[in-house]
Design brief:
The protein is built from 14 helices and 4 strands. It is of the alpha+beta class and 250 residues long. The two termini are 28 Å apart. The structure holds glutathione.
Length: 250
């Protein structure tokens, strides 16, 4: 059976769960406790050297990481139902879009997600604890992000700037929905492009609902995404409620 190392609220994990659900694939769920730094443990880094979730263990024991790469692997290995356009140009467009989301949106979303979920705990770490954690983080960007939430919380100005960046996604999606005319981002059907954007639109809907409402095409698209059975199966739940459930379990 497939084994997924993931986090319920992680956007990249949500993408993979959406793909698995869309294809009706069963998997063993292994939650990674990010606040405890399990993603930076030597065992986890052996699976994903970037020290981030998700990681997917295949049926033969090999490992894959990077949500968009996992999505395409799942499509190629379990092609029905398809979540990728058949037309090569549309496929290329889908990949370019997902790559853009990865490059432009993830760092912006971290500003909000980590301020909410990581900062309350990370700000309590002693200097010694912080140094130990920093030493285990494999990439400079994530060391910086952890340092920010632990010692130098994002300012309101930085949050406003991050939100402006995040909202560019809605503008880009408007253009794509207008061009496709199908109600989906690329081509005629729901694809990895829609899956790539969904976790980010979910967070925008929670953080800034009025901004989403200014984009009727995206708003309708969002309703269609949420109406898919895979959305429920993948457990894309409200961020605050999901975090509260985790805290209650501890
Ligand atoms: N490009 C990666 C991004 C993965 C990623 O950034 N995961 C975040 C959660 S969404 C994470 O594990 N953060 C933990 C950390 O940075 O310590 C992908 O798409 O898989």
């Amino acid at each position: 059976m497939l084994i997924l190392y993931h986090g319920w609220r992680s956007s990249a994990s949500r993408r993979v769960r959406l793909c698995l659900a869309e294809k009706g694939l069963d998997y063993e769920s292994r939650l990674v406790d990010m606040i405890r730094g399990e993603q930076h443990s030597p065992e986890y880094l052996a699976m994903n050297p970037n020290g981030v979730v998700p990681a997917l263990i295949l049926e033969d024991g090999r490992v894959l990481y990077e949500s968009s790469v996992i999505a395409e692997y799942l499509e190629e290995t379990y092609p029905t139902p398809s979540i990728r356009p058949a037309d090569p140009y549309e496929r290329a467009t889908m990949r370019n879009f997902v790559r853009w989301v990865d490059e432009k949106c993830l760092a912006k979303l971290i500003v909000f997600n980590w301020s909410q979920s990581m900062q309350p705990v990370a700000s309590q770490w002693s200097e010694d604890e912080l140094a130990k954690r920093m030493a285990r983080i494999p990439t400079p960007e994530r060391r910086e992000a952890w340092l920010r939430v632990a010692r130098k919380p994002y300012t309101e100005e930085e949050k406003a700037e991050a939100m402006r960046g995040l909202l560019l996604l809605l503008e880009r999606m408007d253009g794509m929905l207008e061009a496709s005319g199908s109600g989906w981002l690329v081509g005629k059907a729901y694809s990895i492009a829609d899956i790539g954007a969904a976790p980010f639109v979910m967070r925008i809907s929670e953080l800034n609902a009025p901004a989403l409402a200014e984009h009727p095409l995206v708003t309708d698209w969002w309703a269609r995404v949420q109406a898919r059975p895979s959305f429920t199966t993948a457990r894309i739940e409200a961020y605050i409620e999901s975090a509260a459930k985790d805290t209650a379990k501890k």
